[in-house]
Design a protein that fits this description.
The protein is α/β, with parallel strands linked by helices. It contains 13 helices and ten strands. Strands 7-6-5-4-3-2-1-8-9-10 form a ten-stranded mixed sheet, with helices on one face. Strand 8 and strand 9 form a beta hairpin. Helix 2 runs parallel beside helix 3 and helix 3 crosses helix 5. The radius of gyration is 19 Å and the shape is globular.
Length: 334
């Protein structure tokens, strides 16, 4: 049993773009903190924007690393926005003050997400390995709101918050946040090293999602979003995605600081370089992307009635823990 992609967009809808792996934090779950590579110049990054415009990619989202570490972020983002791209960013919030929030607005950012993982400052600060980070992150939400930027909040679900995530939604409401992303715990980088201490068991994941879906159904003043394909096997999950299973390699790709393309930030397999290789050849013919788009059901997925919905769950997590895209997601409770 396998997924067969019969239709494919001519390019991804989103490029998740890491301008730099440099960061002022050392978060317990970070996929990239120990990564190092050459960084491109402002000019070369603007050349990347030209490629994305030519391929009609509608969205770019800057991540990292911490995007605001790059002093030319505003110039690159402004160039992209002027070219018609929808520009967003995820940040730990430490460097977002009133002046930088105004600069982000002026540069054309449509949305900025701030990471907050617990309303208990000590838990958040410990998870992010940065004393004082909770207060700075909450202040960032207010600066962005005051600057008129649509603000989102990202919370990585782990042992520190899976039984106490509702207060995070209240915090979002208090600070004018429009959307909260309850992210599943990935197992890449430091996340792999710390998974025994931070990751949930499959049964705990099921319990969390059952409660979270109920909360989502009862909530109409705040958008609650998930990014975990394994959730599709649960009753009550009725979101209609453009693709089944993981969206990486199908709806999105990831750019490293040197222009290398990977399927997503959590899968460190380079499929080509956006400045040196033919993009269409990468997109349509990459063996790695082809394999990800045509997953075969292995192990317990082989006789599972949910495979056609979740396609084995998170491809990045399966790859990080087994080295094989097609192995079952270790979070799966089936």
């Amino acid at each position: 049993m396998s997924e067969k992609i019969t239709e494919l967009f001519s390019a991804p809808l989103t490029f998740n773009w890491t301008l730099s792996f440099a960061c002022n934090f050392c978060c317990s779950h970070c996929y990239s903190r120990e990564e190092e590579t050459e960084e491109l110049s402002t000019e070369d990054n603007c050349r990347i924007v030209d490629v994305l415009v030519d391929k009609q990619v509608p969205f770019i989202n800057f991540g990292g690393g911490e995007p605001l570490i790059r002093k030319d972020l505003f110039a690159i983002a402004g160039y992209a926005a002027d070219k018609g791209l929808n520009v967003s960013m995820n940040s730990n919030g430490w460097l977002v003050d009133a002046a930088s929030a105004t600069a982000l607005k002026k540069a054309g950012f449509k949305s900025v997400g701030i990471s907050i993982d617990s309303i208990d400052p000590s838990l958040h600060d410990d998870f992010r390995c940065m004393p004082g980070s909770f207060d700075r992150a909450v202040a960032a939400l207010d600066h962005l709101r005051d600057a008129g930027i649509r603000t989102t909040m990202s919370s990585v679900i782990s042992k520190i918050n899976y039984q106490d995530f509702r207060p995070l939604l209240d915090l979002a409401r208090e600070h004018g946040v429009e959307q909260v992303y309850l992210h599943n715990f990935k197992c890449s980088g430091r996340g792999f090293k710390n998974r025994e201490d931070l990751d949930l068991s499959p049964d705990e994941w099921r319990s969390f999602y059952e409660e979270a879906l109920q909360v989502k159904a009862e909530t109409d003043d705040l958008e609650i979003s998930f990014d975990d394909p394994v959730i599709s096997s649960l009753p009550g999950y009725d979101e209609q995605s453009l693709v089944k299973g993981s969206s990486c390699g199908k709806l999105s790709l990831h750019l490293r600081p040197n222009g290398d393309i990977t399927p997503c930030g959590f899968i460190p397999l380079v499929v080509g370089n956006i400045l040196h290789d033919d993009f269409d050849d990468i997109w349509y013919n990459s063996p790695v992307l082809t394999k990800m788009r045509n997953k075969e059901a292995k192990g317990k997925c082989g006789d599972c009635g949910s495979f056609e919905s979740c396609l084995g769950g998170c491809t990045a997590r399966a790859f990080a823990t087994t080295g094989d895209f097609c192995e079952p997601d270790p979070h799966c409770w089936k």
